[in-house]
Amino acid sequence: MPCSTQRVTVLRRNHHFSFQGNRPETRYGWLKLTPAHSVTLIKELLAGLPPGDSLVLDPFCGTGTTALACAEEGIPCETTDINPFLVWLAQTKTYPFSRAEIELFMTAASDIAAELSRPGSTSSAWKPSLYQIEKWWDASYLEVLARLFEAIQSRSKLLPRASLDLLHLAFCRTLMAHSRAGPGHQSLSFRPAPTGYYAASLFEDTPCAEVLATWQQATQSLAAAAYSPIKVIPRCILGDARALRSSLGQERYTLVLTSPPYPNRISYIRELRPYMYWLGYLKNGREAGELDWLAIGGTWGSATSQLNRWEPPPSLTIPFDDFPTLLARIADKSQILSKYVHKYFCDMYLHVQEIKQVLRSSGKIYYIIGNAKFYDVMIPVETIFAAMLGSQGFCEIEITTLRKRSSKKELFEYVISARKP
Ligand SMILES: C[S@@+](CC[C@H](N)C(=O)[O-])C[C@H]1O[C@@H](n2cnc3c(N)ncnc32)[C@H](O)[C@@H]1O
């Protein structure tokens, strides 16, 4: 149904926003990563779908919240992410594990624990070449974690893929429980290394006992949730949200439900690095920088020097009148940050043009996104998204304020919705 007018309604409502559904004992909380969005909200938006014939797309999969909610509700869903580790995580979280696969996982987990508690060999096990790894883990814990990983890997050819995936997830949980890193929203902080009494070799068995206690807790919690039913298996695909047509085909989806990278986030790879290095998704800093450069809003490592060289495509103008002024005001303080914001919106605009091609006529879009402030320059991200959708011919455009994001009074999270005519 064609629509001639584009309406932008700003609703101020106090959404009942909660992360209750993302608890660690459910599949949603299998690995706590900061980008995850609220299951409560996703299920509420899915509830508005007409029955039958629906196909949902989440082009920015992240930890797979949309895919898992659809899988549990029996709604067919496809999801893409540029990061192969996140695609693996979403696949694992949405897999319908059989009883046999879970039992094999639990038996292997307790065999591994028994193996580790026996007096070990003195030769040191493989560790990834994560930059300044000693900042992430104290040497004694690192050695136990490396032995734990070696024990998992030694079973890789003996176990079904699904059981091995659960072992790897349990390893990831154990890994972070003993890390000195405290993941914050945009930054990581590290606790200082222990000294004196606690570092003394007198206590050298403590790390092993502690790591094994975490391992046992993680494996039991994962096994309990792995029995929870999956009604439809989603397709989790490695792909670029700026080039969806080639991998997904045209006009297939009835609903897009996603939370794209936030402009103030500046690198998703930063806090994912420990998992990605251990599980073999990254081998060195060069690979980390290259992957972050592919991601929208990435600035990790060499991505920053690539950004310095970046020039906006001449044919791409962001359809928001104040955009050049906003960029100029940021550039007064920092040229590179201004380029970062410019590139972020160019990438998102390419994505919006692409999403129009893969969505069916009458299909609906929901973007969950936050606004951002660089120095004293407020970026009305939600209004720019609405303008980009409008310029691509979408109608029924609405901006709904969801919640305040932080203690800063002007930072909010929004849902932007629109329909393809
Ligand atoms: C805000 S997070 C999504 C969070 C997700 N809703 C959840 O609940 O976990 C944004 C995601 O976009 C991904 N991403 C960044 N650039 C991308 C691109 N060009 N194509 C596909 N995914 C991309 C990032 O890897 C990140 O996982």
What does this molecule look like?
The chain has 15 helices and twelve strands. The chain has 421 residues and is of the alpha/beta class. The chain folds into two domains: 9-82 and 230-269 and 282-419, Rossmann fold; 99-226, no CATH class. The structure holds S-adenosylmethionine.
Average pLDDT value?
Answer: 89
Domains (count) = 2
| Gross geometry | globular
Total beta strands: 12
Indicate the CATH architecture of the largest domain: 3-Layer(aba) Sandwich
CATH class of the largest domain reads Alpha Beta
- Predict the CATH topology of the largest domain: Rossmann fold
| Count of discrete alpha- or pi-helical segments spanning 4 or more residues | 15
Q: What is the CATH homologous superfamily assignment of the largest domain? A: Vaccinia Virus protein VP39
Structural class determined from secondary elements: alpha/beta
End-to-end Cα distance, whole Å, is: 5 Å
- What oligomeric state best describes the polypeptide chains here? single chain
Low-confidence stretches: 196-203
What is the H-and-E element order?
A: EHEHEHHHHHEEHEHEHHHHHEEEHEE
**Within the largest sheet, what's the order of strands?**
1-11-12-8-7-2-3-6
Percent of residues in helices comes to 40-55%
What percent strand?
Answer: 15-25%
Whole-angstrom Rg: 23 Å
